[in-house]
Protein 1
Amino acid sequence: MKNYYTTLSEEILSVAKLEKDTIPLRRQLFYIRLSKLEKSLDTDDLKKTFWINIYNAFYLITLKETKQGKEIFNLKRIKIARAILSLNDIEHGILRKYKFRIGYGYITNPFYSDFIKKLAVSKVDYRIHFALRSLNLAQKTIDYFDSEVIEEQLTTVTTDFIHLETEFDEESKTIQVSDFLLSYLKDFGGKNSVKKLLERIFERDLKNYKIRFKTYNRVEKLL
C-alpha cells in the first residue's frame, strides 16, 4: 500500500510543475498531525522521498509567487503539520541531519527545532544534493521521487547530473565540477570520495586529474 504522505508529496510536485493551483494540497500539508507524519515516515527512504518532493515543489511554488532570487531559500513559506519551514530548513536541517549551511558539512547546528530533529534522516545521503537540483537539468528523467524505487532514482539523477555538469580538460588534466560538491564536501566523504564517484560514473582512472570547482546557481538556471 502506498504511503499517504509520500503520495501527497508526489502530487503537489506534479501540480507545481504544471503551474496549477496547489493551495488545496498545501492546506492538507498544514493540517497533518506531526505524530502521524513522524510515525508514517519511519525509514530514511520514506523521509527522503517525502522531503525531496516537498522541497522541489516549494522551490517552484516560491520562485513563481515571490519572483525572488537566492532569497527564496531562506523564506519561511512551507507550512507542514502547523510548522513553518524554509527550503534551507528542509535541505540542511532534515535531509542533511541538522547541519550548518556553511562549514563544508563538518559542523552540526544544535539550534534546529525539535520538529526538524524528529523528522530528520538518520544518515546523510550525498545523492540528495543532486535530487534537490534535478529541476535544473536540461534533460529531466524523473517526474517525482517514489519511495519504492528511490534508490534507483537517486542513482540515476546523480549520474545524469554529473554527466551534464562535469567538464574535462584533457590537456591540463583537470575536471570541473559544480561547486556545491565543495560546499558540502563532508557529505560526499571528502575530495578523494568525489574523485572516486567521478571514476565510477565515467568508468575511467582519474588519479592524475585535479578537481576544480565551477559556480553553480540553481535560481539563475531556472529563471
Note: The first helix runs from residue 4 to 17.
Protein 2
Amino acid sequence: MMPTQDAENLKQVKLDFDAECPSCSASIEFNPATGKLTCPYCGYETEIAAPEKREEKVAQEMDFAKAEERGNFNWGVEKKTVICKSCAAETIYDALQVADSCPYCGSNQVMEASAKNTLAPNGVCAFEITDKQAGENFQSWIKGKWFTPRAAKDSAKPDSFKGVYLPYWTFDTKTSSRYSARYGRHRTVTDKEGNTRTETDWYSTSGFYQEFIDDHLISATARYDRNMMRKVEPFNLLNNKAYKPEYVSGFLSERYSIGLQDGWSQAKREISNHLDAQITSKIRWEHHADVVSGLHFSTIHDDITYKYLMLPIWLSSFRYKEKVYRFMVNGQTGRVGGDAPISPLRVTFAVILALITIAIIWYFFMSE
C-alpha cells in the first residue's frame, strides 16, 4: 500500500488522446515525415482534423495582463497517476509530463495539457525532421568540428533519438524608450614635429526610440542545459498550429516549470539588452558618431501579449573514451547543438598558428 504522504502528492489525471489504429489496434502517433497520424506497425495513416475556423488554426496571442496563473510550477514534489486506456495499468508520472507511452503495453498517452494552477499550451510547432534526418544532421555537424579528434568523428554514433516537445513562452510588446547619452567623433591631430594622434570631441544627445518586439522566445523549462538549447534556435515560430493532443502523440512532452511572470522578467532583461544595442546604433547613425558612451534609457512596455508553445527537439548522446556527450537537434529546422570532444593537440596547433600569424603581421607593420 502506498504511504499516506506519497498519496497526498499524487493525483489521477485523464487522458486527452489515446487513439488506436482501426486496422491492428496498435497506438498511432504523429509522423514528422507526413504530418499525419500513423501506425508504426501496419502503416495506417489518417489526417489530423483541421479547425473549422481559420483563426483557430494557429496559436492566438494571449493578453498578459489577463493571465490568471503566472507562477512557476513545482515539479519536484508533484506526481500524478495515469490509468492506461488500453491495458488499465496504473503508472506514476512526474507532474510536468504531458505525453509519454505506457511502460506496460507501449500505447501512446497524452495527459491533460494543463493541471491545477497551470496554463494550457495554446500552440505547437510540430516535428518536421525525422529521427533519421536528425542523425544525418548530427554526422554533418560533428564532422565540421575542427577541434574534435578524427577518431571521435569516425566513431561517434548517436544513441537512439528521443523526441520531446519542450515548453516555451513568446512575448510581443510595444516598447517606448527615452534615452540620453554622449557620443564622440574622432579627429586626427598633427603636432609641430609631424607626429599624429587621435582626439575625440564629445557631445550630448537625447531622444525617443520605439520598437515593436515580436515573438521574443523564452525557454519555460529548467530541466535542460539552456546554453545547449540556445544553440538549436531559432525556430520558425510562424509555422505553428493551435494546440491539439494529436501533434504530441508518440513523443515525450512536458509543461512549463518556469512560469509566465518569471518568463516575462527574463524577456524584459533580454529586450533591454537588445534596445541598448539598437539605440546605440541609432545614435551612431544619426550623429555620424565613432563612439557612444554613458547611454541611459527607460522603457515603457504596452500591449504585452504571450503565447505558450510546445517546440520540437530531438535528444540523443554518443560515447567517446568512456565519456557521454549529449546533443540536441531542432525537430523543425534540423539545427544541431551540443557537446563534442576537444583535442588538446589541435587546440595547441591553432594557438601556435595564430601567434605566428600575429607575429608576421606585426613584423611587416613595424617594417613600414
Note: The first helix runs from residue 4 to 8.
Protein 3
Amino acid sequence: MPKALPPKLLIQTGKFAWTSMWRLMMPKLAPRNSKGEYIRPSSQFRSSIGTETGNLYQPVAGRYKLYVGLSCPWAHRTLIVRALKGLETAIAVTIVAPSPLEGGWVFSQTEEGCQTLAELYELARPGYDGRCTVPVLWDTQTKTIVNNESSEIIVMLNSAFNEFASHPDLELYPEDLREKIDQWNEKIYPAVNNGVYRCGFAQTQEAYNAVCRDLFAALDEIEAALESQRYLCGDRLTLADVRLFTTLLRFDAVYYGLFKCNRRRIQDYPNLGAYLRDLYQLPGVAATCNLEAIKQDYYSSLFPLNPGGIIPLGPDLANLLEPHGRENVSTEQVVGGR
C-alpha cells in the first residue's frame, strides 16, 4: 500500500490549494485595487419617483415593488423606512435569498417570469453585465428597475409616497437637518457601513489594518456624539440613524467575527449599545429584523470567508429588548444643565 503523505507536505499542499482558490474567488466576490483594498462598484439604476412634470415614475400606490434580502443591510434600510412611514399597503415586498450555487439572489417562486434576480436585471436592461444587488425598486407598470441604490430609495420612500402613508408627518430628511444628516452619512458610509466590508474583504494585511483603524475611530466618534444627544442629529430620528442602524444590528453577530472587526463589540460601547436598543425598539423596526436569517446568509453564503459553512450559535441578542434609557438624552438638556 502507498505510504501516507507526510503531515508537513499535506499541510503545505492544502494551504497552497486553498490560498490559490481563495485568490481566484475573491476578485469575483469583492473587487480590489492594487493595494488589496475592497472597492465597491457603484449602483447602475438611478432614476427617481416624483410628481414632477415629465417624470416617467409617478407615485402610485401598488405600482412599485421592493425586492430585498433579509440579510442585506442596504436592503434592510428600505424595509425600515417603509415600516416607519406606514407604506406596507402601498409598496409590496418580495424576499429573495442568496444561493451560493447560483452565485446570487434567487426567488422562492417565479417573479416576472424570472427565477433569479440576475434574470430580473436582464429583463430590465438586456445585456446588463453589472452586479445584481438588492434592494431593487421595481416598476410593475414598465417592467423595469427604477433604482437599486438604497440611499436614494429611502429618500423616495420618505417623501414621494406621503399621500399613501400611514405616518405622512414623519419626516426623516427634514430641510433644517439635511446638511448635518449628509455630513454624518459622508463620514459613516466609508468608515462604518462599507468599512465593515472593507475589513472583511481586504486582501492584504496592510489594507485590513488601515480600514479597521478607520472603522473603530469612527465608532469612537459616534459614541462620543451620542453622549449628549439621543440620535445622530439631535432629538429627532433621521435617515442617518436608519443607515447606521442596519450595520450596528449585524455587527456583533456577523462583522465582529466573520469580517474580523473584533477590536470591540457594539454592546461594549455604553452609548452605541443603548442607541442600538433604542432604534430596535421603535414601533415597526424589530419586525424588519431577522437575526437568524442574517447569520444563516452571511456564514453560509460567503464561502471564501467561512469555507466550513458552520453558523455560530451566538451571540445572545436578547439584550436588544433591554431598557435603553435614552429617552432623556438630548442636546437641549445637556446645554441647559451647564
Note: The chain has eleven helices and six strands.
